[in-house]
Fold this protein.
Amino acid sequence: MIKTNKNIQECDVLVIGGGIGGLMAAIAAADAGARVIVAEKSDTRRSGSGTTGNDHFNCYIPGVNADSLEECLKEFRQSLVGKGSYDVSIQKLFLERTFEVVQDWHSWGINMKPHGEWEFNGHAFPGRKRVFLKYDGRNQKPVLTAEAKKRGVVIENKTPIRDYLTDANGQIIGAVGVSIKNTEPELKIFKTKCIISCTGNASRLYPSITPSQMFNTAHCPCCCGNGRAAAYRAGASLINLELPNTHAGPRYFERCGKATWIGVLSDPEGKPVGPFVTKPNKELGDVTADVWHGVFNDRFKDGTGPVYMNCTETSPEDMEYMIWGLNCEGDTSLLDAMDKQGIDLSRHMVEFGQYNPMLIGRGIEIDEKGATKVPGLYSAGDETGNFRSDIAGAAVMGRIAGEAAAAEAAARPAIDDQLETHEVVKELQELCSQLMEREAGDSWKDFNYAIQQLMNDYAGISIPRSENLLRTGLKYLIDLENAALGAVGCKDSHELMRALDAFDLALMGRLIFLTAMERKESRGLHRRSDFTFTNPLMDDMMLMIYQLNGEPVTDWRKSW
Amino acid sequence: MPPTISKNKCNGCTLCAQICPLDVFGPAAPGQVPEVRYPDECWHCRACVIDCPKGAIDLKYPLPLMMLHQVVRGK
């Protein structure tokens, strides 16, 4: 039987995941007087999709990039992070508090005006307001970690959390995970009044664009839906799961940061493929791929591709600025790889492509305070489903959720439940023991690849979805999960973490099949061969899924 | 490809193993050159290269991640 660590750590607010959202939530909760612990799967100094940097922070600086919040909101809602099925009420609250966070980050040592003034560029349309502040995020994770520690936040690294624990009233009382600090795993239990779930994107559900390289993903492949799965099992509602979201960048080296490039998306003869820019433009970038997600595949399929990022006419000054920007964005591996391959961007165009879906901005449903429908459970960052704004969204909504969770925790009495004997802890103990004790079992990796092939073939974006394919895919996925429960074996704590990741991914997959069946229309990348039209009556209708008496239930609501 | 650590330069501080977002090293013993236990799981984020105080780490990129490139046709 897997060991359980006897030291049950207690706090007022437990933050799950120490990325941008989690660290900002921890800082805010600690500032409000809460005792805070961050349980982090990796190490908060370098973890999550902001690991080595970012360079665009969506924000509203009154009188600088817009004259009113409404003006800024309009641009935000047409940008790649603001358009789509999101709640405007949360978007407004977010924008109102962006500038205070920008100022705090700058005072803490993250350089938000690296050239001496507020500078907005990239992800922008010609002749319009710009809403993405250019900044140097290279040190953002170490800086936020230091700020959290200054406030007495306890950080438990190498502690992936599996489940959120609730009492008989459905109220949060704790969490349980598996420590990977040593090769031998042990269960780790936390007792807490509130949880803020901030586990980021969900990568590794669909295949990487390179079949042999599962961890070649644009966003951090460590983030794979653990918080969404735990929140769903605890009773939270997940939202927008059925609407696939994809990213684009260098065709086979999956990476974010396409707006950091200063070039023109071009065909093989160097002709622009989009209508927005004809010459490289530092202020705008080329927003074509933000608007026309399918540009790479469409041009590939109609014989006029491939499509390249063409920087051959970028001025030497702008080229230098771009290289600096790619460093700020954390894309040093792209620069290193191009250097090692002898690529000279003043001569060579780099082919770009569209990647497979991931779940950023699809996930936990929150209200204006970051609260879920489970008492004591909050969420922020890439894993929320009805609001998205990537780095800035994580930072600001993390702060808002941290403040609200600290206030709720202060009003709650101490928890006296016995967590070691909690049903969910016992179930996890049993599952982990089975996985660890099984000799010559199948590898977690085969299980993960098997999930990916089902998701790609039966609920992907290359073949339209249909009732038949979705129903069939769901059946196969359940068969796969059942087979994996009786087959997967793990040699050490690391493999156990990955196996649990795969079970969480399978749960996300099941919920995608169910919600995709329920949305009987085509919308964006959710294309149905049996419902080929987009139904205008569903324009602002959002689809939720949650558990009722242990069974998944779908429900619709209008966007707020 | 996993990170490669120069044994001559490494001072055994284990910072790389601590901060790797993908835990490709697994637990490392202080004073020793970290072992790369899970090489397939490298994200190529270069956190280890950036943070290594001795400049002892290099990354190679797997062939499937090749940066496809060419000159503008006709130029």
In short: The first strand of chain B starts at residue 3 and ends at 5. The radius of gyration of chain B is 15 Å. Residues 1-75 of chain B form a domain with the Alpha-Beta Plaits fold (CATH 3.30.70.20). The interface with chain A takes residues 18-23, 26-27, 37-38, 40-47, 49-51, 59, 61-62, 64-75 of chain B (CB under 8 Å).
